[in-house]
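in:
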């Protein structure tokens, strides 16, 4: 049974930092494309950052230079380091895995985590 369990969300002031973790079980993260999506109330779920199966990384323009995605194959865990947080970053953050690799797209997601809330106060 595949499980993606997120942790590390919380409430911070603007300019603060958080680190999200996604512990995967039932699938080897090194063989999947795996990434973070987020969804704010009233908005569609959007890609934040992704590590495709080839180990490269890509980011939404809105988070470039502020967020860093990384994958620890030994721990089978995905991370998202978030710096210089802004109120616009407030959302539920979801870990996602794509069985067939390639770019992280909403339609291509095979497994979702339950999400972790990030709230950034101005």
């Amino acid at each position: 049974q595949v499980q993606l369990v997120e942790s590390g969300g919380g409430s911070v002031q603007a300019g603060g930092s958080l680190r999200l973790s996604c512990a995967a079980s039932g699938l080897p993260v090194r063989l999947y494309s795996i990434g973070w999506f987020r969804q704010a109330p009233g908005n569609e779920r959007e890609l934040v950052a992704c590590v495709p199966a080839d180990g490269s990384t890509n980011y939404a323009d809105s988070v470039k230079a502020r967020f860093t995605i990384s994958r620890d194959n030994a721990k089978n865990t995905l991370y998202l380091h978030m710096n210089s947080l802004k109120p616009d970053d407030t959302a539920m953050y979801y870990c996602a895995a794509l069985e067939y690799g390639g770019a992280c797209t909403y339609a291509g997601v095979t497994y979702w985590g339950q999400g972790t809330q990030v709230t950034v106060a101005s």
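note: The two ends are 40 Å apart (CA to CA).
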